[in-house]
Amino acid sequence: MKKIRWGVIGSAGIAKRSVIPGIQQSETGEVTAIASRTLEKAQQTAKELNIPTAYGSYEELLEDPNIDSVYIPLPNHLHKEWTIRAAQAGKHVLCEKPLAINAEEAREMAEACDVAGVVFAEAFMYRYHPRYKMIREVIQSGEIGELRGLYANFTFNNAGDMGNVRYKKEWGGGSLYDVGVYPISAARMLLEQEPQAATVHALFSEAHGDVDMMAAGILEFNHGVALTFDCGMWAAGRNVLEVIGTEGRIEVPSAFVVHQDQQDNFIVTTKEGSREVEVPKLNQYSLQADALGRSILYGEALPYPASDAILNMKVLDACLTSARERRRVELTMEGIRK
């Protein structure tokens, strides 16, 4: 089988810890090069992860004719520039979430990739694990009745790391950008619709660059269904999703972090009792890489195209506007209603 030759632009922790090993374990891909701001750093990471080629600049990697696709784990404010530059160099792109700083940037990125004829996707790894297909099947079966609401959270405490890029407002820092996008994307995916309005209250910390260190909100969907969520970078760790129906509920104890070596099952509870649904032990990062690989190699449709990422950014824009301006923000297909 022909393999997609991946280049990695940047040596962020998520790349080294999860995405690069995931690509290396995938069926369709191999990591052939990595670039960092210094050659020394790139060489160190390449040695640690057994990557053949290291570059001391991002431009050099994009000029490499032996690279088919790039993964971009750079700080959020650099996603647009390097996605567009990669597309113009003829490289397919997997860009770390959140895709951009706002929906307009996301749209520009998608258009550039479309013009260049390259595959483009946002790196929401959890969606590629079959667990969520299984959850949707339970919902669609009617076992828990009619949907009444979703509850989700994603929090961690990293507030002591004062130099963290997540605390730079102008770089797209804040908990909504970093982890709030997970509950938002999950609700849109499970409900298969877009929210009509967003209301978010947040803790903005002057000590952390005035970014939202904690946020809690509600997204209004059709038929009176809502997502109630919270996210934070200054709170005890949580990562849970609950789907409530008229006749039962689904609990996902580890909703967005799937451990390949653990059994991250979910629980269905009805009046008949509770049952634990066993899910396969799979590497969600490898599954993500293979989805792009099959699209590049065989023209298979991406399960989550760039249009989905633009819509998710629209919702995030509304959440940020609501939190900053302390008001309910209505959404339209065109964008935020003033």
Question: Can you describe what's shown?
Answer:
The protein has 338 residues and is of the alpha/beta class. The chain has 2 domains: 4-123, Rossmann fold (3-Layer(aba) Sandwich); 127-285 and 314-336, Dihydrodipicolinate Reductase, domain 2 (2-Layer Sandwich), CATH 3.30.360.10. It contains 9 helices and 16 strands. The protein has helices at residues 13-24, 39-49, 58-63, 79-88, 103-116, 130-141, 175-191, 284-298, 306-325; strands at residues 4-9, 29-35, 53-55, 69-72, 92-96, 120-123, 147-157, 197-205, 211-220, 226-232, 234-245, 248-252, 266-270, 273-277, 329-332, 335-336. A 10-stranded mixed sheet has the order 14-13-12-11-7-10-9-8-15-16. Helix 5 links the parallel strand 5 and strand 6. The termini are far apart. The model has no long low-confidence stretch (mean pLDDT 96).
Low-confidence stretches: none
Structural class based on helices, strands and sheet pairing = alpha/beta
Quantity of strands, as a count: 16
Helix % is 25-40%
Measured distance between first and last alpha carbons = 52 Å
CATH top-level class of the largest domain: Alpha Beta
Radius of gyration: 20 Å
Order of helices and strands: EHEHEHEHEHEHEHEEEEEEEHHEE
Rough outline: globular
- In this structure, how is the largest beta sheet organized? 10 strands, mixed
Report the portion of residues in β strands: 25-35%
Name the CATH architecture of the largest domain.
Answer: 2-Layer Sandwich
